Amino acid sequence: MDKTSYTEAGGVAGTLGYIAPECFLAGKATQQSDVYSFGVLLLEIVCGLRPGTVIDEFYCLVNWVRFLHREGRILDAVEERLGDEYVVEEAKKVLVLACSHPIASERPKTQAIVQLISGL
Predict the structure, then answer these.
(1) How far is CA 65 from the centre of its chain?
(2) Is Repeat one of the keywords (predicted)?
(3) CB atoms inside a 10 Å sphere around CB 93
């Protein structure tokens, strides 16, 4: 029988695309994996795309945004329908934050995320 979710396969609860890569190895969620999932949610909002969207050669939204960030083109990830109706610096901050660093220990702490989003 094919398994359609990670939970059915005996892993942590969650929807593919939002689950941090380390959860597949450790089999459990952590505070850092929650930060990853929240970052994916932010990307989904800012980019207007689902986490599992295949874009060019990238099999998920997170990898595409990471690529754009490395290329210095992170604003290319902003939802096109926004046009110029957003604050560029705020979009950059959210997208960089939401890139959901692949190394769990390199992800920001929850308090830092709250401060960034609330503008403190």
Answers:
(1) 8
(2) no
(3) 14
User: Quick one: tokens of 97?
Assistant: 């934050």
CA 63 to the chain's CA centroid: 9
Query: Which residue type sits at 109?
Result: K
**DSSP assignments along 83-101, one per residue:** TT-S-HHHHHHHHHHHT--
Hey, what amino acid is at 17? G
Question: Which tens digit of pLDDT belongs to each residue from 44-96?
Answer: 999 999 998 899 899 889 999 999 999 999 999 999 999 999 999 989 988 98
- The DSSP secondary-structure symbol of 108 reads P
Tokens representing residue 1 in the block: 């029988």
